[in-house]
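S.,

Sequence below, as promised.
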Amino acid sequence: MSDDMDIKLQMLESITNNFSEEQKVGSGGYGDVYRGMYNGIEIAVKKLHQLQGLDDKEFDNEFRNLNRVHHQNVVKLVGYCYELRKKYVTHNGQLILATVMERILCFEYMQGGTLDKHIKDDSCDLDWPTCYEIIRGTCEGIYHLHTAYEKPIFHLDLKPANILLDKNKKAKIADLGLSKLVASTQTHKTETVKGTQGYMPPEYVDSGSVSKKFDVFSLGVIIMKLMDGNMGRTRHSEMGNEKFIEHVCENWNKRLQEKRGHPSNKIESLRVKKCVEIAIRCVVPERKERPSIKDVVDELEQLEAEIKKMSLAPNESNEVHVQRSCDSKVLSVDPTLELRFIFEPRKDISCCLQLTNTTNGSIAFNIMTNETKYRTQPSKGIISPCSKRYISVTLLAQDQALPTMQCNDTFLVQSANVNKNLTSAENTEEFFKEAMKGMVVDVVKLPIVYVALDQFSSQ
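The prediction came back faster than expected:
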């Protein structure tokens, strides 16, 4: 741990204007959060309340667990302050000199605030693609806490108020004050029940049982509220599973139609249905019947793999992600007919693809193929006006010769004119997500062909 993480109280008082109301951005059961600038970056300063016997444990839990966690979907710990000071206070009508403990944690500042601010009784005010990415990001964050370390970390207080959003609405799990670092993923019991009503599973409320399925139950409630508002859980109880799934899917399809002016496509409908089904399974009363967080992450990954196949499949209906441009191709691709690999068993084989931008504007490109079989460098990026980009495509080593030299793989190049301020490859993926919602994206499909080495030599 770096000494830079130990931030003095005087410094924190200075950057928060002595913890003024003007600098306060939020408050919770265990502390208030203030905004401040530290070493040139904006940070969130969480000052714990003076609650005897409670704040010390919450502070220690959150610091120790967050200090070991490094994941894009878990809020980053910047520093801490733990100081004792003498202060005159009035007690029973008399002035006494008391010892005051200041416990403060500092985090990266999240401009998007908390998720609960976007959830109303009947709906969420975020669009579906944003909701879907929040669901996926939250699942990835929980999976990391449960599996990435020698001892799993159970959050035990997951709720929309503890999911923060950055300026791009990317989700990050926060507030690990109640979290537990456990020796295994088996069930444990706790004597004191702490948490938030409605997000705690029945076995914890009834007997204090804590397991990896605790956070899964909380996740299910979050997804349900994200997809159907704060009253979603009540509606689910009243409707039952099938009617509730139909209700949620119908509502989101209507919103998608209104947003885009045409019927929602098959891909987004699949995502909506899958997420509401996952939520229902996560909140079943019987702990053993809930999926593990790994099951949830795997299901979403399998769904995305299926969607990718749909996008790559030829002769797909108009409901797929990509469309062929009516105009001439915005990007010239060489070779134009097929991508050839001179195949040798047990060797990585590479070939080159040339992308040429002949226009006077910048063009974004995104390459899609079987990621486990091929490596593409770069796979996305920006091509400046009247310039070229060379792409290295590598067929990863195979254990044996392929039975046929003609395979069914397809190499797909998506491209689109950049009509907004897009300057780096890092933003290309987000650009295509937005572009494919309504803008025409040009697509070039190249079949992949394997040529045997002896056949190539005889040519």
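The first helix runs from residue 9 to 15.

Coffee later?
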